[in-house]
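Running low. Invent one:
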Amino acid sequence: MTELEQNCLEAFPAWLKALADDARGLADAVADETAPDAVRRYAAGGLNYLFKSLDLIPDGIEDLGYLDDAFVIRVAMARAVAESPAGGETVPIAARLAKDTELISGLLEADYARLEAYVERLKNGSARGRSVDDIVGDAAIRGDLLNEVSGWATSYECPSFNRDEKSLVKLKSFLRAKLP
């Protein structure tokens, strides 16, 4: 097993365990009207992804179901920090999550560019009738999303994650097949 694979197998369970808190932190960034626009927009897109009915890996898939959500929010924050470097300084969760993309990029290799493109499109998409523009621009719609994130985070149960190479193979296969 490579060092990268070992690092992934150590990090991914921690990412799953922290997913609810990360979602809450991104919700705080969306709510903060002083945060850079790029951070707010990518955070809104990443949070919207949590509620997509057809995401890259169905949430019910044992071990992997929420790992795509953890990947998406990290890539979203990396895109935000690349677009607005001040976001990494003023919104600590953005910088922390963005740093994690080194592991994702190393694991996915050429498929990482497809994941980045997918995440880029999320800022122009919508979920549950809420577009990113609506969330950022309308306090009532933003409040609905923030309440929904809070409820989701409260009910989220961290799935198990098998720390073996087969999990990484399954993960890469799912993403390779599902990424546009």
The CA atoms of residues 32 and 40 lie 8 Å apart.
